[in-house]
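[Q] Does anyone have a clean structure-token version of this?
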Amino acid sequence: MKSQHYLYLLILVAIFFIGCTQPDGRTEITSENTVSQPAETKSNLQLDIMTEFPEKIDGCSCYYSKDSLQFAKGEYIYFHNMDSLSIISINGQLEEFQRASSHKTDSTHSTHRYKSGVYSMQVDEGFHRQSGYEVWLMTGVISLEDTLGNHHLESFYGECGC
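[A] Here you go.
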């Protein structure tokens, strides 16, 4: 009888640990200043750091970094003009993307899809709080894919504002 109780206890503990794991590739906000990285992807696609705003990004915009430390240093991986243009640098090549669709999933999250030549990109954004006058803190994940099937996932931390 005791061994049967231990077997039940072992099964319950296993179910508990299985139920507490997160699906791969999901972003979890651990505090307002850090974002845990999605599952690493092996890819030939790399997002480059840019330290200056592209000329086509003027006025109201979004600008994202890999994390809050890079953001504080002015090292960005993504720019968006809050209309239809997004700009990133992939493997040393500046790429301009045009928005193909947008979907607001709830009051604090939205998904945007973009196209650029051989690339497609999805940006899943989460709004967290106002961080300044007409400026909001954003986190999320950028998913990049090329026509050869190469994928790259990158968590981001940044702001949108005017």
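[Q] Thanks! Anything notable?
[A] The first helix runs from residue 2 to 19.
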